[in-house]
Amino acid sequence: MKLSVLDQSTAVSGHAQTDAIADSLALARHCDALGYHRYWVSEHHHSGSIVGSAPEVLMAAIAATTSRIRVGSAGVMLPHYSALKVAEQFRVLEGIAPGRIDLGVGRAPGSDRLTAYALNPDAGQAAERFPQQVQDLEAWVSGMPLAPGHPFAAIRAHPQGPTRPDIWILGSSNYGAQLAAHFGLPYAYAYFFSDGQGVEEALELYRSLYRPSERHPLPQATICVWALAADTTEEARRLLTTREHWRIGFERGLRLPLVSPEEAAAAVYDEADRARIAALRRSAMVGTADEVASRLRQLGAQLGLDEIVVNTWTYDPAARRHSYALLAKAFQLS
Predict the structure, then answer these.
(1) Is residue 100 part of a domain?
(2) Chain-wide mean pLDDT for the chain?
(3) CATH of the domain at 99
(4) Residue 126 above 90 pLDDT?
(5) 277 assigned to some structural domain
């Protein structure tokens, strides 16, 4: 099985948010050397937790400082933007790293309603036009003509070249699965959004409704999971407390930087909080490399996947890099 990475550039308490960007660049080089297949970065806005607000900019730096790994967005929230502008950005990225660029797109705002409005006052209507945006984006990215009669049929996205980005549809519902199937595009399911609820139905819909395309004659699906490996199960569980603390804040509408395991352990939780934490621990893929690898292989076999994307948060960037190194060794990636 191939392993890939989703990096959300998480802010850490007591450190500048810009440190998260530097950590992302360091992790990308680390995972490139370890043998990971893809390195995807996310788009979020007005968040004190996830500060990767411009994936196309971060991708340029990653693409220029890595040599092998595919680099992508997971994803660009397309309704905020012009499809032409996104196509131009990713054509430039393709020039930086030919044959290594993935263009993952989603329909969700990646923020609250006010921030979505600030990004694009027409965002609500734009979300309804998402299928047309995807169609236009596919044409401009590939260099193929738009449909006859299209008002922008004369426009081309530059720079042109012998290679092109691969477009992925991202989602956590049946909508994205059906859209990806309709257009014959690869599909990535955000498993970690809902601890896997709905994944079987979404993948079944995607595969059963898939319409082969010239570039993708067969369906290509993956999922993104949250996982963490450490030298011992106890250490992995200790590191997990950082995410548990964040999750409780998230449920209360807070978007705060990650705190240390020590600060998380000292936090006072009510009964409802403790129940949420217990549920998170039951479903969390944490432990030694062998334990986490076994869970990932089992999940991949269950869902018929040959690739899984791993998202990992830790307070200490070194612990995150070590987790990815342990899983790379367990899967013999290099």
Answers:
(1) yes
(2) 96
(3) 3.20.20.30
(4) no
(5) no
Q: Are 123 and 116 within 8 A, CB to CB?
A: yes
Domain that holds residue 151: 2-233+292-330
Asked if 102 and 165 touch (Cβ cutoff 8 Å), the reply is yes
Is the pLDDT at 124 greater than 80, yes or no? Answer: no
> Measured between alpha carbons, how far is residue 35 from residues 2, 57, 60, 67, 299 in Å?
9, 23, 20, 11, 21
Interatomic CA distance for residues 71 and 41, integer angstroms? 8
Tell me the pLDDT tens digit for each residue of 251-274. 999 999 999 999 999 999 999 999
**Residue 206: its pLDDT value, please?**
98
Are 37 and 70 within 8 A, CB to CB? yes
- What contacts 24+ positions apart, CB below 8 Å, involve 137-146? 137/78, 137/83, 137/86, 137/87, 137/103, 137/105, 137/167, 138/167, 138/183, 138/185, 140/83, 140/84, 140/87, 140/88, 140/91, 141/87, 141/90, 141/91, 141/103, 141/165, 141/167, 142/215
| Residues listed for the chain | 334
The domain tally of the chain equals 1
Residue 311 confidence (pLDDT)? 98
Cis (ω within 30 of 0) for the bond into 159? yes
How far apart CA 63 and CA 316 sit, in angstroms, is: 24
